[in-house]
Structure formats: structure tokens, C-alpha cells
Amino acid sequence: MEAYLDxxxxxxxxxxxxxxxxxxxxxxxGNPSSLHEKGIEADLLLKQARMCLAQNLSCTEKEVFxxxxxxxxxxxxxxxAAHAHKRKGSRVITSAVEHPSxxxxxxxxxxxxxxxxxxxxxxxxxxxxxxxESAVNDKTILxxxxxxxxxxxxxxxxxxxxKIVKRKSSPALIHVDAVQAFGKIxxxxxxxxxxxMTVSSHKIHGPKGTGALFVKEGTKLSPVAAGxxxxxxxxxxxxxxxxxxxxxxAMQELRIKESLTKVTELRDYLVGELNKRDFVTINSxxxxxxxxxxxxxxxxxxxxxxxxxxxxxxxxxxxxxxxxGHKSPVLTAMGLEDALIDSxxxxxxxxxxxxEQLDYFLKGIDTAVKVIRKK
Amino acid sequence: xxEVLLIKNGEIALKGLNRSTFxxxxxxxxxxxxxxxxxxxTFTKSQSTIIAEANEEDIDFEAAVETLKKVFxxxxxxxxxxxxxxxxxIKRVALEYLGDDLRSIRTFKVNAKRSDKKFPxxxxxxCREVGAHLLRSIPSxxxxxxxxxxxxxxxxRDKNVFIHGNQIKGAxxxxxxxxxxxxxxxxxxxxxxxxxxxxxKRGLQLNAIHFAAPxxxxxxxxxxxxxxxxxxxxxxxxxxxxxxxxxxxQEAIKEHCPEELFTIIMRRLMMKISVRLAERDNCGALVTGxxxxxxxxxxxxxxxxxxxxxxMPVFRPCIGMDKDEIITISRAIGAFETxxxxxxxxxxxxxxxxxxxRPTLKLIEEAESAFDFSEMIDRAIENVKYxxxx
Lengths: 375, 390
What we know:
The structure holds two protein chains of two kinds. Chain A is α/β, with parallel strands linked by helices.
């Protein structure tokens, strides 16, 4: 039996995505910018994909820009916004638990001379809204906070954050890295009052190599790349049609509410079973996104457990802890003890996960504990 | 224009009667490495120079130069053009072959070597003629006989003339295979690939031995070690790579021996296994990356205990080097980026909190005798996995 429980790293391709990709490779392979018939049919497919994404984000098609994925989307948002608005001020705000593609982008902004403020989180990974409120001022030009944390699943209070920014009448643009949230909870950037939002295809059973950035109409952004006018020159480059077709297919298969109900049941079952074991500590907050469960197996190094599970064809992530390597910055920022960080595992589910796989995972950790404790 | 490679061997030139044996090994090594990377060459020896001529046209000389930089036993080499023995021809070819290089720098000088004394001009005459021609043709150029950017060398030999620019520094050392074979203990860190490279530089052929402890160590860790071995093999040639499963032994040490002696006992058992593999595979010594005082198992006392476990020379070329110095070599040979990838290796699993830094042999031997490891050692040796790494 195989149990792939690392869906926050990437997901397997779903059926519709694969069919759309094959169709694009075989039939609709034109360049959407070409004037002839081959180009027109590719452009049509691109338009459909864009419309589908706009519907998913409750925004207009004009506000959707295809990118190569999460990292590019986050970079484009952070650099694009900071560089376009640097005349209005130099303060930029992010959190201590962002994905590296946001964190390191802010590190670069700092090196360029921007004043970077990193909002701390509490033990469950929630950003401190009062800290944020005091940090936002009329010289703040960008705030970038993720919707769902990739390691523990904490859902950040984006709507509240947005209200605070509006209340303080700051000119700041709000960017949300929604890579882990997209397709799992409804995303309504316009209703929330945010300006930029990143999504990615391969976390929702689409192919790797594509994603998109939501840019609220009228938002000024400095493009990172220069090129031939595609995506209104915000992200030029010939559109990778097979990948976008696959992304489109993956979005067509999404049933957010249905999947959320199913995954919540699975998560509740898993956490219930884990809580019966005295050697397990759950690190994710109770109201986290049910797709992600971060746990620690007390006293067992995660890399060892990961190797043992891998031999049993059970695939999870370690909290990037290792005696030689770097401790997970997210868990560190949450203030977890070293022993818990060193033994942390991330189990991430998808709508294709079933109870048998979770039982097999539970059997796997029981075996691992026995094997290692025996020694 | 026909190009050749002029290769100067280093230390070999100092050898006495067996010099030609060393040279033959060097030529064999160069031939094989060039064949693997760019194509077939033919070699002729002339005084202290080995001349390599390509057998095919369209040989990628840039790639050949990169290959030669990694062959031990070469002190320096030049990429040269072949030209007829006629002064007008020499002037024309020198300008054509080196013109682009000379236009991009400021100062030069010409250096002539005339081993064919029948050539009608003397070396100073050749220098003057060629120098004047280059100066006239490239107005931006100046002569600097003391510290030129480029030395244009004209070598007048029996059959042809060779013209080349600056010499390229070789890897130095002795040709691999001229000094015998040793077994390198490789962990996945920074030091052991450097140690292997250093000993290979002295003409030794390498075998490599790695201790893996699945599931404590992962497949990725093993892949990383293989990558490191492959980086060293770019210099040393093909390496016979052995992976020993050490899990059972490590667990037994943990169960039966005192925690503070854990690392030293582990090192001793690794050495015992390595010696047996080394003997079986015709290796005359072991090589480790140990550096004095770097960690608890590398203190003088600890090394004495480790050495006492074996009756074979143990070479530790990094012993007197600082970490910075080791890292400099690691970067230079292209191993550093791989070495620092973060995976557990079997030395970091079960690391004691307070390892003993001044153990005595008596204490260690007593602790070791608490358990009979011989059966497990036999089993580990029986189950070794071998693989050739290029």
C-alpha cells in the first residue's frame, strides 16, 4: 500500500488536468499571440482558463495574470509593488512565518534600503494584529501576509488585517500568498479588500510550472521581466499553454466545499487517533486548515522517521529539522521547543486521501516508534 | 589552423631512471581522460614536453583544457598552434592565432625557444621580428619584458614551430596510479573529499568506503556521498565505491557501550571494517579527512585510540589544516556546495552530549569488550555494496 500524505509539497495530477494537457500538447499548441487560426484557438483556451480562474477568485478576467507558479507570483507582487510605490514611503511589512519566496524577497528589499518590519506570531502561528496595527503608518507601502501557513496550516485573519489597514488610512498595498489556501477554502480578494494574491497550479492537482497573480484593477506594479507584451507586460513571455490548460482542468475539478467537508472528517479522525498516542504532540492549531496536520513524535528525529516511513511507501515531510541543517523557521518563530522541532512531521491531505491511507500512516508511526525505541 | 596541447610534467622531471615509467602512466591518464571528455589524441614525447595532437578535426579545445586542468602530474600546459618553419609564416600565424587575445590586453613580450639550432635565426632575432610585427599590427599594444599580460611563446622544434600565449597552470602532483592504491573513508562532509583529492594528487588511486545507517540516514544522504565521490573522480579517475551498512553495529554500540565513548568506538569499528575491505581490494593504506582537534573524536588521544584499532598506515592529509584552509580546497575542487547539503550522516546519529576528549586505550578496549562485534563486522563486510563511480 502507498500513502502519499505530502500534498502541501505537491499533488498528483487529476484526470481533467491531464486530459486538458494532452489535448493542448496534441491539438492546441499554437502561440496565443499569433494572428492566424492556430494562435486564435490557443488564445481561446487561454481566455477560458483566465475566465475560470477569475470565477474562482470572484474577480474579473482583467485582474488575473498567469505566472510560472508561487515563487514567481510572490516575487512579482513583492518587488513589483515595492518598486512601483517607493515614492510614497519606504516601510514594508511581512510576518516571521512566510514562505521563503516572500521572506527572501523582503530580505532583498531590506538590502535595497526599505525598512522591513516582520510581525511575530503566537504559539499557534497567528500573526499579532496589534503589532501590525502599530506598525502600519502612512509611509507603509506594502504588507505581505500568507493566507494559510504551509507548515502548520494556520489560517491568518486576512479580512481583519485588511480592515485595520483601511482604518489607519495607510496607502499600503496588501499582498496575500494564498498558495496553500487556493482550492481549499473560498478566496474572495476583492471582498476582503486586498490588492495582490498569489496562487499556484500544482498544489491543486494541476501541473507544475504555472500559477497566477491576482492584481486588483488599477493597482500599479513594476514588472520584473521585460518582454513581448503578454499578460499586459506585467508578466511577459509566451504562455505555457499545456501547463495553463492543465491548471484550467484542475480548477474545473475543484469542489471546494465538498472537499473541505471530506478532508475535515479525515483530519478529525487522524487527530483523534493521534491523540490516543502519548508520544504524539499536535503542533497545528485546532482551527487550522484541515488539509495540514503538523505533529511531533516525542524524542524521535523526524529524518529517521521519514526514512522509515518512506521504506513503507508512506510519504510525509519533516519540519526541515536536522542536527546539521536548518531548523524550521516557522516552528522556531512559533516558539516551539527544539525537541519538538527536531521531531516534527507535516502530514498534508488532499481530496483523494482516504481513511485506509491514514490508518496505514498510523500503523507506520507505531512501527517506527517500536523499531526505534527497541534500539 | 591546427592546434595541439603542449604539456609540461612537473615533479616527474626530477625522477631518475624510472622517469619514463611515470611519464607513460601520465600519458595513459591524459589519453583516457581526453577520450572520455572530447576525443582521441596521439602523443609524442619531446624533452620534458608531451605533445598531444587531436586525431579528429573539430575537437573542442576549450573542453580539453578544462579536462587537463584536472589531471594530476601536469605542472603546466599550453594550447598552441602549429606553424611551418618560416619566419613570415610565424609572424602571420602568431597575429592570426593570438590577435584577439592581444587586442584585449595592454602589454606583452615575445619569448622564443629554438631547439632546432639549424633554424637560420637566433632566438633574440625571432623575438624582435615577431614582436615588431605584432606591435605594428596592433597599435594599442605595448612591450613589457618584466611583467607582461601575455607572453607570446614561439617554440622552434625539429618538424614544426609551435606558437602559444600564456601557460595554463596544471593540477600539479604525481600521475594517478604511480603511487599505488588506498581506501578513502568518506562521510559526506567537507573534509573527506578534500583528503581524497590531496592523496590522489600524490599519485594514489582511490577506493572509497562509506558507512550508511538506514533508516537513521537517508537515501539522499547516500546519493550526496556518491556525488562527492564523483567530484573527486573528476581528478582521480574512476573510484571503486563501497557502501557498508552500519546500522546494526551502531545500535549495538548504543546499547552496550558508555555514551561518552560512543563516537570513538564507532570510529574504531569503522577502521576495523575498512582495513579488511582495504586488504581485500589491494589498498595499501587508509585515508581519512580528520583534522587535529576539530571534533572530540579527532583529539590526539582519540586519534591514538583509533589508530590502535588497525595495523595499516592511516593517511590524514588534513591533519594540520584549519577548517578555512580545507574549505578553500573544497571550493576549488567544486565539492563545497554538495558537502554542505543538510542530511544526517552516520557520524551525527546518536552523538553523545559530552564525548570523552581524552580517552585512554585501556578504557576504550574495556568498554568495547562489553560486546562481541565480530559477527556483526563479518556480516557488514559480507553485505558491502560496490559500485564504480566516474
